[in-house]
Amino acid sequence: MDGFTDYPFRQIAHQFASALSYSEFINCIDVTYGHPFLKQKLAFSEEESPFVYQLFDDNPQRMLESAQKIEKLGPDIIDVNIGCSAKNVSNRGAGAGLLKDPKKIKLMVSSLVNTLHVPVTAKIRLGWDESSLNYQEVSRILEDSGVSMIAVHGRTRKQEYSGAANWDAIREIKQLVHVPVIGNGDIKTPCDIDRMISETGCDAVMIGRAALGNPWILARRNKSDVSPGELYQVMADHLGLMVSFYGDPIGVILFRKHLARYLSGYLTTSEIRTRIFQFEQSEPLLIVIAELLTHQSESV
Ligand SMILES: Cc1cc2nc3c(=O)[nH]c(=O)nc-3n(C[C@H](O)[C@H](O)[C@H](O)COP(=O)(O)O)c2cc1C
Question: Whose CA is nearest to atom 5 of ligand 1?
Fold first, then answer.
């Protein structure tokens, strides 16, 4: 997930036994022309294996050249993003914008499959909007083009993240194709994992937003069962990984978005929020987190 599933986050997820480790989506324009943060986005460790680089573009030739470049860095899989709904991506015909041009999907994906040495996979949405649901056509095209797996976010581009994800459509895709299907959308609790598998027959699930501040879900644990001590330890580990990856103070500042999610339910007043988001060094921040967790658990 862009802005979240960086190298430090994925190390935490790996501790919780995530089955497949995806990079944040990578813009092929950045791979082609360079970008100040590209090196950080491309960083991964062998321990993460199987590791997936996810690419997005509207230009098949640039996608191919970018994939050939980053394949040399040793990922296990290269994935094509056909699902991003962000306007700056989809309105230029990349991400979910590709759903409007199935022929281009075929061209893009076939050339990757025919040229790369690693398996190629794709992540899709159900269509551009409810009047152009083409997930069956796109899934068939992907399978015919030789993808090894399809991940399906059960929403349209227009829905973005609103409304309920359509798990029936995921089931239809699973029944239609022979490659493994990953179901995605609205898994919020460990129970939802089993429910999605039984309702759709999908081969695996992908958990997005619910894993932010809550890697325990990857190990099928409810966050409500996590003790304050364990919550503190995982936060301290995550923060430590961010500081060693990005340095001080950037690592601490970037950790704030995770902090807000780890501590949801604890940041009860604006005073607490203001206090906790002021730090640029990890030591004083950890002291305040420990105080907060101790104080709140004593008052329960
Ligand atoms: C902040 C944010 C960033 C995301 N970045 C990506 C991305 O880089 N690649 C991708 O395939 N999906 C991305 N997604 C979509 C999620 O992977 C997922 O498909 C979506 O959130 C639905 O799943 P969920 O209900 O489990 O969150 C992103 C979602 C959010 C909220």
Answer: 1
Residue 200: Cβ-neighbour burial (10 angstroms; 0-12, 13-18, 19+): buried
Q: Does 147 share its domain with 247?
A: no
- Do 184 and 233 lie in one domain? The reply is no
In a domain, 62, yes or no: yes
182 and 275 share a domain?
no
With beta carbons less than 8 A apart as the criterion, state whether 111 and 100 touch.
no
CATH number at residue 38: 3.20.20.70
Q: pLDDT at residue 299 above 80?
A: no
- Give the ligand 1 atom nearest the CA of 207: 26
Q: Which domain holds residue 86?
A: 7-217
What are the tens digits of pLDDT across the range 195-244? 999 999 999 999 999 999 999 999 999 999 999 999 999 999 999 999 99
Residues 97 and 31 placed together within one structural domain of the fold: yes
Residues in the ligand 1 pocket, defined by CB under 6 Å? 1-4, 24-25, 54, 81, 83, 123, 153, 184-187, 207-210
Which of 2, 125, 155 to mutate for ligand 1's pocket (most ligand atoms within 8 Å of CB)? 2
| 222, part of any domain | no
Give mean pLDDT, residues 256-278: 94
The answer to the question of residue 141 being in a domain is: yes
Q: What is the pTM of this model?
A: 0.97
CA distances to 25, 26, 27, 78, 84 from 35, in Å: 14, 11, 10, 20, 20
Residue 282 has pLDDT above 60, yes or no: yes
- 28 Cα: distance to centroid of ligand 1 (angstroms): 18
Q: 291: part of which helix (H) or strand (E)? A: helix 282-299
